[in-house]
Structure prediction request, 415 residues.
Amino acid sequence: MTSASEAILVARAMQLPVFLRAAKLAYAVAAHRGEHLIEAHVHYQQVAAQAPLGSRQHLYAQMNSALLHLRHGEDHRARNELSQLAEDHTAAALESSLQYARAVSALVPEDEPIMSCPSGNYDGIVRALQLLSADQDQPTPDKLQLLLDGLSHWEPRSSSLQPMVAWLQGSALLRLGQPLLAAARVGTSRSALPDISAMLLCLKIELALHIHGCDIALLPTLCAELKGVFDHLPHREARYGMAQRLVLWHPLASAYVACSPVSIPALVDAASPVIFRDGRPIQVHGRVAPTRLPFVQMTLAAFDIHSSLPRDQSAERERMAQAFLVCHGNGKRWLPIIPPAQIAYHLCRASETHGVTWHHAAQEVARVYGLVPRTLGAFLRDERKVLHKALNDLLHRQVTMSQFRNTLASLAPGD
Prediction:
């Protein structure tokens, strides 16, 4: 950045506009690589305003300015700007950047060919995002293993994207049911890029929310760090865009933070609808649930309690698909659904280190959303009853956290 800054001063002194634009572009690139995003954006915009239309300088400045919107969670704006550029220009870097912007929003179908990235930064990440998104729609270990295998032989040229690779690998390992390996992979990974930082923090939160996971850091600490990321975003559009991105990839962490004493208004608005609300009928995403048993099952599964049934559930799955399988881009996507009991339990757990406010938040979740839904049939009635009573006792401080965990152990599969 120092050399580019000096070149700008020389170009101004000598009144060399072409050289000045080149120096500003070099400065913007250096600032971008050094994760000084505001400085980079200012200089990209200056070059875009001054460079001749259609020139490589103009295209490069506009393309990178659009990519910086992604870093602040303005995914829709970034895709729009890159799409408009692609209508007038043909360049491998532009096509690769646009595909990356779409992949971040899970808009690259599993069968779409991956564009070669001239900078060597995006193609491996896009393929991994493609597989991670496909696994959300139709979970299979094969897709996640392909993701891990692909990233084991590839790394981005830019070191600033290494934390994104760690996030992808950690997310795949967590979905494979290996939270401890995921925690080891993520470790103390951090990023100065706001969107990658937020996604890493949400992964660390979800590792702590897994019933067999681990606390890389205390949950309230991670929530506070995520709030810090939101507090430094430049404007409302960025905050709400970031919230939508986090709900897309980390609905559980987003819902937990939204219900916690840490106040992030954009995340409250975006994540609250994913928590199902018990009642007659159950509701989630503003929709009426067509059946109750799957909600009991997902609640039990969150605590690693036996939840399979000795009968066919294809009719229930079909009704759930009709209600919660929605259009996303050119494909379909399941709306995320989070059990309130899982959030309430971990808010109680956080209260052990951070005080009564977190316990009150847990009680509020139970009051607003309920805990474990009742069913009319005999299936899972005993498991549901034991878990509901244990959670209710925990919320009313009639049992300790250790006693609650002992109750869970008695319900573990195979016992």
Q: What stands out?
A: The chain is about 65% helix and 5% strand. The first strand starts at residue 283 and ends at 284. The first helix runs from residue 2 to 14. Strands lie at 283-284, 287-288, 325-328, 331-334.
